[in-house]
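Help! Submission page says 'invalid entity' but I think these are all valid:
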Amino acid sequence: MRRVVQQRLLEIAIREFGVKGLEGASTRSIAAAADTAMSSITYHYGGKEGLYLAAADYIARQMGDHLAPALARGEVFDVTSPEGARATIKAALSSLTDKMISDESATWALFIVREQMRPTEAFERIYGGMMGRMLEKLTDLVCVATGSRDSCTIRIVTITLIGQVIALRASRASMLKLLERESIDAEAADLLKARIVANIDAILDRVISERQDLP
Amino acid sequence: MRRVVQQRLLEIAIREFGVKGLEGASTRSIAAAADTAMSSITYHYGGKEGLYLAAADYIARQMGDHLAPALARGEVFDVTSPEGARATIKAALSSLTDKMISDESATWALFIVREQMRPTEAFERIYGGMMGRMLEKLTDLVCVATGSRDSCTIRIVTITLIGQVIALRASRASMLKLLERESIDAEAADLLKARIVANIDAILDRVISERQDLP
DNA sequence: GTCTATACTACGATAGAC
DNA sequence: GTCTATCGTAGTATAGAC
């Protein structure tokens, strides 16, 4: 049962570093919450900073594991056709919406958002893992779905598409206030996903019509 | 020059609390960065927690000051007509986009996002100020622009509209990576705002057409 | 590999000088 | 109103027992 201690350590570290950042979090409380001695952090990760980077790597790995089925589900469709690409985008963002609504995501989401807003070396590890590949993949899909070539405009479209989903987590409390709810139940989740899918159609259709107007 | 010290204290507190959270930040370093003694925090705010809440109030006040011109600009239009309401939504979200892209917003944005994801009493103060009123106002505008009555669906539309803008800050590093830039220059900012305005049209038009299909 | 013990620094709160 | 001084606690790192 070697790795159990390290896994507990990493999961608690993600929560603690997420809330308090690298400097703010304490190895003492992380170790205590993981039911181990503080010096085991030194042993396994060389110190606080090593634990922080290990936590980032753990997030990158977990994201890969969680997102793989979402993208695999997309591969049911023919991603070389506009319709298939669009269906894949919808499936991927619906799946991501489920993740963003779920309580589990609260743990690592703060870690990632902090790195998004104040990037350190840890962000390179997270982005260099699954996240970067997923964004590039999504950009490709937007190209196919709209019949466009890769461009700054297309990438901005990609950003606004995924932005709707990210904001569900990044402005969660405001969203709950506006919806006058304590949490997102299954019914509200379905409404959210339906709206995001409808918005994807609306935005992609507009990009296509812009494309046909100009040249 | 009484208030200068307190203002410096608050602005530095927002930055420090934003990065490290209530527990993680240290009153010592906040006071040092503000060039004053730590005990002045005790004197003015009663302690660390008081400073945290004062920082939240300061953010709420600043948001009001910054957003007032944006909403006032909207009042050029007739907000009782669908066209005027739509134009106001576009103006407000364009202005908000400028804020989210600007470097100043990096300071208080992390404070707010942390409260969004792990709300404390401070969130009530921020939401109870300008933020809540602005979201309700935006919801009203979406109702007028689409000819709908207030509903869960309309509020979800509002969330996705503003979500695009919020994500610019909440996933900033990823966005910069995807755009292959170090920062957002004026040209990219214009492209972003144009896309967001186009998306607003696309989404609102779709809501209107959905409305006409059903009943 | 995991623990205890320890050295040293930094923390928040408070009392009291000015 | 702002400062210094000080107290008790909690922080990281490290050495060494098992």
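Support: the input was valid. A stray whitespace character was the problem, and the output above is from the cleaned input. Chain B has one domain: 58-213.
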